[in-house]
Amino acid sequence: xxxxxAGSVLQGGRYRIDGVLGQGGFxxxxxxxxxxxxxxxxxxxxxxxGTLRQGQTVFPPATFGLQEWAQAKRDFTTEAQLxxxxxxxxxxxxxxxxxxSGTAYMVMERxxxxxxxxxxxxxxxxxxxxxxxxxxxVARALGVVHSAGLLHRDLKPDxxxxxxxxxxxxxxxxxxRGFVVGQTVRHTRLVTPGYAPMEQYGSEAxxxxxxxxxxxxxTLHHALTGKMPPSAPDLMTGTxxxxxxxxxxxxxxxxxxxxxxxxxxxxPQSAQEFLTLLxxxxxxxxxxxxxxxxxxxxxxxxxxxxxxxWPLALVALAGAGGFALLRGHDRSSPPAAATPAExxxxxxxxxxxxxxxxxxxxxxxxxxxxxxxxxxxxxxxxxxPPAPAPEAAPPEPAPPEAELPAPAEAEPTPxxxxxxxxxxxxxxxxxxxxxxxxDLNASMNLYAEQVEYFDQGxxxxxxxxxxxxxxxxxxxxxxxxxxxxIALHGSGDVRQVRFDYRYTVSNxxxxxxxxxxxxxDLVGDGEHLVITAERGAIHPETKVERDLAPENADELSAAAxxxxxxxxxxxxxxxxxPAVSRLQTLLQAQGAEVGVDGFFGPETTDAVKGFQQSxxxxxxxxxxxxxxxxxxxxxxxxxxxTTPAEAPTFAQWFFTTCQxxxxxxxxxxxxxxxLQFCSLVIETVPNGARPxxxxxxYELEYLEDGEARKKTIGARSRWPADGEPAVNFEEQGxxxxxxxxxxxxxxxxxxxxxxxxxxxxxxxxxxxxxxYEKLPIQ
Length: 778
Hints:
This protein is α+β, with helices and mostly antiparallel strands. The protein folds into five domains: 9-109, Phosphorylase Kinase, domain 1 (2-Layer Sandwich), CATH 3.30.200.20; 114-278, Transferase(Phosphotransferase) domain 1 (Transferase(Phosphotransferase), domain 1, Orthogonal Bundle), CATH 1.10.510; 314-545, Nuclear Transport Factor 2, Chain: A (Roll), CATH 3.10.450; 551-642, PGBD-like superfamily/PGBD (Muramoyl-pentapeptide Carboxypeptidase, domain 1, Orthogonal Bundle); 649-776, Immunoglobulin-like (Sandwich). Helices cover 24% and strands 28% of the residues. The chain is globular, with a radius of gyration of 30 Å. ATP binds at residue 44. Keywords: ATP-binding, Kinase, Nucleotide-binding, Transferase.
């Protein structure tokens, strides 16, 4: 994160930056001086992850449009104005607010002491009696914040300040948001693993005081044990919490156990309920609540109703294949009960979600209808596989942050066997598998007669089938691969499952890909399971959309032929490279005992001479046009039995790190100005075909003059290299790893966001496979 340098001034010299106090996902906090009074202050700068700074000017993240950035500054301003009204000793005081250099700044009192995180790092676990007092102070402060209609949303040891004077101060309200109890709202996704509850892992949810209570419980647990708690998804999959000290007060133990409940309804619903548990048995005196002067409750910011989306993530959400998520709207088809959006593309109105091939995960959040608070309907569980989720375009480019309402854990009926974890896992695998196939009836057999479908409310299975049928037609090629273990919740004959997956859906003109998550509510009779509710969303930062113009097929075919022709140079002993590998593959097809190592050694020379003799050619061991022609002619009759007809399947691909060519330092993205080698990993399902060459082209995405722009770079990179710096390649098991030399220079007035890499990999059977991946520019 690029922070302001010490000595920088803001608001015309009124404030001087002295150094950095801390930084998080939404901003940077500086030690500063109010120059007129020569008074120490702290200044919080609105600087979300992905924000760039050129000079002193701030440019918003690539995931923010101009309207979203303006809204972020308005929210920052509103929250600062509200916080400024608090007169509570345990809430940091806000002194000033202004905009400068393209972003917003909040001026606060500067505290002397250390954060709870720093204390834990310095001393380890705290005494349980000290944690008891800390719990009371923070809970009371949270009660004041919640009474004003605000949630902190990022409570953790870093955001509790232990001042030298003895104050325990809540700090860093840069992530705070308004809420209305019981109302589903869209929030920017904010997750601090270990402290964030499950509802913060989505894009829409019913947030409330219980959201902060979970984070408070996790923070106090850390203080007691000296260890950060497992993340909420890990807890749901069975990872245990570290044991509390034996001398932990009973009330504190009870409060923490309740606060860390995965289900919202099992947690204390307010800070006062938490304090009541903390104080012990009912006979214990109630903890007096502070009576600070409270501002008028903050009205929740107007919600931009994005359309019910189930982005590509929908794939996994939408039943048999998250079809709905990706399914776009066909204006020629009759409107269905819903208006789903299209995959990660521009949402289009459409019928109920029938997402991408996998159990689609809509970009939309949980259904607008209240999530099931009792066991999902058990209407005759038909033998129906998951139906597609609505194919909707991701509503807004905001990261998914949906509440994952847990199904009520109804007491299992005595004569209905409980659903086992193994059954659920098998069901999810079948759900994803059917998502990529065309058996619509099998997909629909995964659904109950009535389903709570994303934000479409309750939908009939017949409506889902119509939606999925349209989705299948729109995206005839679909692929879904689960990328995480499944998180299970519930018991008896009612279970809930959450998982992430990678999707790729395409037709003749368009391809969508990325990662998403799906949440399914399941009921069963011990033998059969059906879906009664389906939710999910895509992770917008991962989605990729590209056009597949019909002429591309000819272009790729011509490119493959041209690249294959470059593999026919005159070869002799001592040569190496992909042309030699191709030669050795052809010789192997004729029964020659030669390895495919890319080096023309004595073994290869003997094999060439033997082949030349068998064909009446001069047996000189030199591979020229005549020998190439004879080898390929013979290959025509044997290739079907020796060489696969297709390229291997690419399961997924991604960038790992970029290594600076001079310093050797590694980064997760491309750093401006320096030559770096960035590793593109392609996970394959091998079929015997071997890569012989590859060509990479690039395009830059950036902001300039307030507009998002894209520019194709003229230079290309090739393997085998045709110059320096060279593309490096190696096979690591089933992975193809290309190390690409990349440099992007800074340009005045441009804010770079990513470099898009398009790679065409040619295999020894002449087939070409394409990859497309975004590499962030830091």
